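Fold this: Dynamin-1-like protein
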Amino acid sequence: MEALIPVINKLQDVFNTVGADIIHLPQIVVVGTQSSGKSSVLESLVGRDILPRGTGVVTRRPLILQLVHIEPEDRKKTNEENGIDGEEWGKFLHTKNKIYTEFEAIRQEIEAETDRVSGSNKGISDEPIHLKIFSPHVVNLTLVDLPGITKVPVGDQPKDIEVQIRDLILKYISNPNSIILAVTAANTDMATSEALKVAREVDPDGRRTLAVVTKLDLMDAGTDAMDILMGRVIPVKLGIIGVVNRSQLDINQKKSVADAVRDEFAFLQKKYPSLSNRNGTKYLARTLNRLLMHHIRDCLPELKTRINVLAAQYQSLLNSYGEPVDDKSSTLLQLITKFAAEYCHTIEGTAKYIETTELCGGARICYIFHETFGRTLESVDALGGLTTIDVLTAIRNATGPRPALFVPEVSFELLVKRQVKRLEDPSLRCVELVHEEMQRIIQHCSTYSTQELLRFPKLHDAIVEVVTSLLRRRLPVTNEMVHNLVAIELAYINTKHPDFADACGLMNNNIEEQRRGRMKDLPSAVPRDKVESFPQPVPVSRKLSAREQRDCEVIERLIKSYFLIVRKNIQDSVPKAVMHFLVNHVKDCLQSELVGQLYKTTLLDELLTESEDMAQRRNETADMLKVTRSFLRASHRRTTGTEDNPNAPLSWVCVAVL
Ligand code: GDP
Ligand code: MG
């Protein structure tokens, strides 16, 4: 099996990393009657003395023998971790992590485990023993040793032992992905071979059945296996291969595998000179090798499709990781610039990545201005928090000791200022909300738009820090401006404002009315229901006189009118101020601020340190991409040029993976 090692191991190593299921090498299953030499055949293929062999019923449970190729590093690691010193070792499923470095101990464990489940009196069980052999000299291949076909129950065996074993064998060989080694001893009648009979049941066309004839050395004197080996007795499509395994005496005398192979070769040359190069353990191994290769070839079209998909996936994954950094300085500048641009784009609504699930960036700022802020302002009532008593008190205080003829203007100014001040808080809140949104955009940009940033967590953090502090610096300036906008309104109550003229007219009318009222001493011109619409409590001492009520109403109307003018101004000017002092300023300064703070030679290495697993992941992906690409190139060569070459499948598989 040595010839298979480099090819299949490389293939499987590659496929194991991309997903273990990509190629299933067939399991090799031995079938045959009891003591026909099944275990011996498997063992000589593996080249290790691990399987219990002998006369009578020895193999009494299926043995699933998984050969696992190991690389020197794995070997060193396992040796260190387990305090062992071995090139090859075995592990059983049922003994968990226990490591067997002696093959003798492995054989003993198989025997003990067989006895444990099947009893010590020839009982048979269908419960498999799982054994893994780790070695640098094996291919990743699974071999299955099975109890032999038997007819007559012995020992603890049940009456229907024949049926039970047959079912057990069928279970394994009916797997279409298995190669059946139908073992028949040369000193029995090939025409009645139970092994070939049972194999034919599941593989009638003989596509995956290979006949192995053992015990060539034990044939009666005067007979030979020529006819059998030539396929004249029973033809077998994939071939009939004769072998000579170690006899019981050889086993007892601990004859080595190498010696056995040498003696086998000598025997074949002597007895079957014309067939010696088409028989023997080595030829059997080569034939299996070829069958496995054919299997791989058959899998290729589908494999190619899957690898194509994988290659595309690796390519896009690799793209998402970005190129390794060669020129740090330009990479840094690029990333900073890209971030700054994305930040601005997100505000302007021209970003590549546009959210569809929720508002963000500029759209959210717009929403804050017009929905959140606008609505809040509109809900600020012109006369909110102002009681009739407050108004009355202000009027009285403004007239001083003399009773006034007219409503004093001072009281209007005093009261209207008090109301205008109430616009400041919602305005400052508007700044706060926009500031928060600007902060949120940082996150948005680094997650969606400038994904490369995720590769460099330190740069990411540094950028966030710079933008955050820029935003933080702009906050007091913007707040100050907004505060001033309200202060400006308070600084001068412009009663000559054109929109206020109507209200003034109303006031003058009122003064006129008052004058007439006093002259005629008539009751209030203000309708009764209007008066009652001031539910505020009046001083307990007395009710408001008609005049007082009228005065209050005049003042309140004036306040209302003037307040609406100011509110409109604020609603208009605060967003403008926020845009100028915060949003636009940050937008304009962002790039230079980032460059100024981060684009420094001393910071290059620090900022462009990749996240730990990123470099590794990129390398792994690049490797996989290379393997998949070379595979595809090789398979392309095959389909375009070497179709007529019968050896092409083998060679191009090698090309693809070596
Ligand atoms: P299994 O029951 O089919 O697994 O057969 P084993 O591999 O256990 O072999 C049964 C016996 O036959 C053992 O004693 C082997 O040493 C012996 N044996 C197997 N193959 C050969 C062979 O080719 N020549 C000789 N002389 N003995 C063999
Ligand atoms: Mg056996």
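Residues 38-158 form a domain with the Rossmann fold fold (CATH 3.40.50.300). The CA atoms of residues 513 and 519 lie 10 Å apart.
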